[in-house]
Every structure is written in structure tokens, then in C-alpha cells.
Amino acid sequence: MNIEVTMPQLGETVAEGTITRWLRQVGDVITDQEPLLEISTDKVDTEVPAPGSGRLREIIIDVDATVAVGTVLAIIDSEPAAGAGRPAHRRHTHSPLIRRLAAEAGLGLDSLTGSGSGGRLTREDVALAARQAVVPAEASVRPAASSAPAVPAASSTPVLPAASSAPAVPSAPTASIAAGSPVAGPAVPMTSLRTVIADRMMQSLHTTAQLTTVVEVDVTRVVALRSAARGPLHDRLGVRLTLTAFFAKAALEGLRAMPVLNSSIGADGRSVVRHTAQHLGIAVDTDRGLMVPVLRDAGDLSLLGLSRRIEDVANRTRAGAITPDDLAGGTFTITNTGSRGALFDTPILVPGQVGILGIGAVVERPAVARQPDGQRVIAIRSMAYLALTYDHRLVDGADAARYLVSVKNRLEAGQFEPELS
């Protein structure tokens, strides 16, 4: 009996996926729910388990092909003896990734030779062709230089004019170091997730007017409150209270006061969409790269609720158990680069959003503090930087400063006790 392996429905917002790797080969005996292949969508990479046990009889869709949900990817023969080792019928298409890489390298797909199954083009094929397109051009320059009849004269002759008269070198891919450069090492393809991140970041920088404003915050009271409460809370409720939850709570309250930062600019570039709910993206560092799961309706959560939800999505993201729907629909994002020791950075906006708040490391250092009697003293305080990047098409610097100061005041007041009861 044949068992069809199909492209799964990974979420309501996902209609297609790209095959990135087959984990088993034709002829292999596999078991039910064993990871069979890896796929990538525009939001997440994930494994697809085998829907039944048997022998993998045929792989229909090859690596790098992008297909719609429901497409049959492979056939498993539940009777291992039947069909084992039969040559598979392959169907090849050029994925958007291959088409994009070839276009960036100035290469025509018809001129390339594929090394994949049945002549399928791979990323390595495109990268190799790009390097070969550069090296001959450079080689054509070097003989001209070395054939100069008089070395002394050549050494006294400016090099730039000669180089400028050389044949034009074809444009290399978007890598910062051109292929064929003396400092270039072996080209290693980006992972699918890295490619998605790269594309999203470039899209954001090319389509928005980004500006970053920074404030310094004294979080000494928050640190003390968290230190006193986290042990009892964990024992009583199992909640892992983190400083990130305090920052998230203050950030969400700030959005209520400054709803422009919880908005989006319409596709026409001339309209504004004011989001009634606050869906908070949380940047999570994983072994595979940065991912941003979304806490839907985060503005309705208490500090404890935020702590639970942040821990949940962070654990699921790092475990590779996040779904595309978990990554969709954010209206504002926070990123905690301070968790790795950075004082602050200038975050890049998530496409479609107009604000992202970067949280720097909380560090102890001498600072001016005001005592209850009004006297100012120099004391050891817990300090942090908050960096807000915003789309200057919609948000002015004064708006950004008002938002940051509202978050700063909330954190410095440190009055979160009611949230912990």
C-alpha cells in the first residue's frame, strides 16, 4: 500500500514551503513519525515526520523546490519488499531562492548546469557559476599587466588607469567580499532561516525611514523587587520571573499612551492602520538564528502572565517547536540584546511595524541618585539603556522620546507589586 507524504499545513498564514533537505533516501526503511525531510517557509524551518512506516519508494519533489500545501512530496511503500530500489521519478522546478541567486549574479538559468538529481540546479551550482564568471575576467586583467614590456616603467605608472581600462568584471552576488577575491574563502550557502532573516532585514531597511533614540534607565527598584519575588513566585506558582517581563510590561503600557507606535503604514504609503490590540513580538536567540514569536493580545496580560508566555514561546522557539502562526501578526517588538551583554544597539524594524524596543544589559555603576530628603548622592545603581528604533515616516523624534520617557518613568518607579500578587 502506498502512503503519500504531502506538504503539511503549517499554519493559517502559510500556503507553500520549500524543501531544504531530505533526511532519508529512496530505499531506506523508515518508521512512523520519524523525521523524513526539512522544509522552510517564509517564517520558519521545520521537520516533516513520516506519516507511516515502510520503505521510501519515491522522492517526487527535490531540494530547493517550492510547492503548495497538500502537494505530494514522496511515496512510502508500506510493504518494504515492493518497489524497493526502484528509480524515482523526479520533477524539478527552480525555487525562488535559485532564481534570486542567479539574478543577483547576473546569470541566466538556461546557461547553468545542475549537479543535483536529474540536472537540478542547486545553490552550490549558482555560487560556482558566479565564481567562474568572475575569475576569467580577473585572469584577463592579470596577463595584460604582467605583459608590460618595461618593469621599471610599469612600477612608476599609476595602476588605476590601467585597471579602469580593463574589461568590466561581471557583478558578483550581494556578498560583501566578491567571489575570486584574494581574501575570499570557500563559499558556504546560507541556511534557509539565515536567508529569510537577511531578506527581511534588507526589505526593512529599503522600505522604511529608520531612526533610533536612546534613554538611560535606573532599574534598581525593579532589580530589587525581582530578586525578592522570583524565589517565592517560582515555589508558589512555578513562574520564572525575568527582568524582560518588567521591560515588556512597561513597553506595553507605553503603547497605550503612544498608540502611534502600535500602528502600521498602509500599503499605499499614505494611510495609517491603528491596531486595537497589542501583539508583542519577542526576539529569541536560537542556535539556528534570530526568530520573533508573537504574544497575541499581550497588552491584556499581567506581569505574571507575560512571564509565563515569554518563557513558553522562548522555550518552544529554541526547541524548534514554534509554528508559523506563532511568528505572524506582531504589531510591536522588543529585543533583549542585553541578555548577551550588549549595552545597547540600534534594532532594525520588523517589516510592517513602526517600532522596536531594544533592551540593553543591566549593569551596576556609580550614578547620581536622589534621596527621600531631596539630597543628591552618588550611589551604585542598576542601569540600562533602552533604544527605540522607529519609522520616521510616521513617528517623530518627539513621539519617540515621549514613549521612551513613559517607559523609563514606569520602570524607575518600580511599582509592580500589585502585578505579583
UniProtKB/TrEMBL annotation:
It is an enzyme of class 2 (transferase). Its cofactor is (R)-lipoate. Keywords: Acyltransferase, Lipoyl, Transferase. Pfam families: 2-oxoacid_dh, Biotin_lipoyl, E3_binding. Its EC number is 2.3.1.-. Residues 2-77 form the Lipoyl-binding domain. InterPro entries: 2-oxoA_DH_lipoyl-BS (IPR003016), 2-oxoacid_DH_actylTfrase (IPR001078), 2-oxoacid_DH_E2_comp (IPR050743), Biotin_lipoyl (IPR000089), CAT-like_dom_sf (IPR023213), E3-bd_dom_sf (IPR036625), PSBD (IPR004167), Single_hybrid_motif (IPR011053). PANTHER family: DIHYDROLIPOAMIDE ACETYLTRANSFERASE COMPONENT OF PYRUVATE DEHYDROGENASE COMPLEX, LIPOAMIDE ACYLTRANSFERASE COMPONENT OF BRANCHED-CHAIN ALPHA-KETO ACID DEHYDROGENASE COMPLEX, MITOCHONDRIAL. Belongs to the 2-oxoacid dehydrogenase family. This is Dihydrolipoamide acetyltransferase component of pyruvate dehydrogenase complex. It comes from Jatrophihabitans telluris.
